[in-house]
Amino acid sequence: MATKSIYGLAADTQVCFVLATLSRCMWSLDTRLVETKLAYLELFLSTSVAIILGLLVIRYRHTTTKKPATLLRYFVIVPVALVLAFFVHPGHHWWTVQILVAFTMYVEAGALIPQLYLMRKMIEIEPLTSHYVAMLVLSRVVRMLFWVQLYYQGEHFVGLFLADLVHTLLSVDYLYLWCRKLRHGGSLIYRV
Q1: 97, 99, 130, 162: most buried by Cβ count inside 10 Å?
Q2: Which DSSP string corresponds to 33-97?
Q3: What's the whole-number average pLDDT of the chain?
Q4: Which value, to the nearest 10 degrees, does the dihedral of the CA atoms of residues 161, 163, 166, 171 take?
Q5: Average pLDDT of 100-110?
Q6: Are residues 76 and 113 in contact, defined by beta-carbon separation less than 8 angstroms?
Q7: Is the Cα torsion angle 5, 6, 8, 11 positive or negative in sign?
Q8: What is the tens place of the pLDDT at every residue in 138-152?
Q9: Alpha-carbon gap, residue 103 to 89, rounded angstroms
Q10: Which pLDDT band, with edges at 50, 70 and 90, does 125 fall under?
């Protein structure tokens, strides 16, 4: 009988994603982005994923990896994202909801780094973790569609777009790990 676990899931990545989701819930209905239907879809999906991941981490917490890299912890990523958001955000006002928008993008971009670092160190990747990170890559495709839609509406947030582009490029690293596993005889998606 196969046992389920979240071994290989970086807890710091999940903390960063939960903080980004909380930030998104605070700002998403207070910006011009509410004019796009994808914004509502993104809010619903990111909140659902945060709740599901929270429940999975609580349920399978005894199966997680215990030794994360010190510099890749959430208490390093979150302050860096906050400082970046304070100085590089859409708009020209210092205190605005746009700082939360920028914080969300920056913390999500940095959050994937601990997960990729952990997956590179592991020999085998658990099925649940493999599916989760594959869905993260798929979410990058949806996010890029979101940016295309914003571009055609006349919005040009270069700093935020670059943060999402970095996040997408980090997702490509996971695709590389996937293809490497496939080339060495593994399956593309591990069986649950």
Answers
A1: 130
A2: GGGSHHHHHHHHHHHHHHHHHHHHHHHTGGGS-----GGGSHHHHHHHHHHHHHHS-SSS-SSST
A3: 77
A4: -90
A5: 86
A6: no
A7: negative
A8: 878 888 887 888 788
A9: 8
A10: low
Nearest Cα neighbor of 134 from 115, 108, 107 is 115
Neighbours of 50 (CB within 10 A): 19
Would you tell me the crossing angle of helices 127-152 and 158-183 to the nearest 10 degrees? 150
In this structure, which amino acid lies at residue 73?
Answer: R
More confident residue, 128 or 45: 45
Read off the tokens for 168.
């997408």
- Assign 123 to helix, strand or coil: coil
- Confidence (pTM): 0.77
At residue 146's C-alpha, the angle toward residues 142 and 152, to 5°, is: 145
The full set of domain ranges for the chain reads: 11-183
